Amino acid sequence: MTIHDGPSSNLPGVIYIPNFVNGDPKIYLTLLLQLPFIYESFLKREVCHYRGGSDELDTIIELIEREFGKIVSGVFANHYRDGNDYAPYHKDQYDCTVASLSLGVSRDFYFQHVSTKDRYRFLLKSGDLLVFKNSVNKKYKHSVPVRKKVKDGRICLTFFLQ
Ligand SMILES: O=C(O)CCC(=O)C(=O)O
Ligand SMILES: [Fe+2]
C-alpha cells in the first residue's frame, strides 16, 4: 500500500485547482449563517442540500458552470465543525463528475483504491477546488479523516456537473 501526495502525482480523472476562488474566511462565515446545516450521525458531519437563497453560493455556481461548460444540477454542502467531524470512506451515489470547493480550515482528503488500497492525499485549503470524474468514484473511495488538533470549521460544497 502506497501513499501518494495528490497534487504532485498524476491521478487520471482528478483535477486539483488551488485557489479557484478567494478563500477569505468571510465566505465560510457567511455560508455558515445562510445554509441550514443539520448533523447526521451516520455521516459524522453536518450536511444540507442547497435549495437556493444565497447570492454568494449562486455566484460560485455560475463560476463553476462557466469554467467547466456544464450545468450544476445540485449542490450538497458539508460542514465539519472541527477536526472531530469527518467523512468516512465512501463512494458518491451520483453518476456524474463532481467538483468540490473547500472553504475554511485546511483538511486532508484521501482517495483509496478499492483493491490495491493505494492512497492519494490532497491537502485541501480554503478556496481550493477538487474535481473528479465518475470513473474515479468507481475505482476509489474517498474520505476526510479525523484530525483531533484541528479546532476550526470547514465547509465543502459538492457540485454535481451534468
Ligand atoms: O469534504 C469533502 O471534501 C468531501 C465531501 C464528500 O465526500 C461528499 O460530500 O460526498
Ligand atoms: Fe463524497
Description:
- The protein has three helices and twelve strands, in the order E-E-H-E-E-H-E-E-E-E-E-E-H-E-E.
- The chain has 162 residues and is an alpha+beta fold.
- It has a single domain (13-80, 88-161), classed as Alpha-ketoglutarate-dependent dioxygenase AlkB-like (Jelly Rolls, Sandwich).
- The strands form two sheets. It has a seven-stranded antiparallel beta sheet with strand order 2-10-7-12-5-4-3. A five-stranded mixed beta sheet has the order 1-9-8-11-6.
- The longest helix is centred in the middle third of the chain and has 14 residues, at 55-68.
- It starts with a strand and ends with a strand.
- The structure holds 2-oxoglutaric acid and fe (ii) ion (FE2).
Short characterization:
The chain has three helices and twelve strands, in the order E-E-H-E-E-H-E-E-E-E-E-E-H-E-E. Helices cover 19% and strands 41% of the residues.
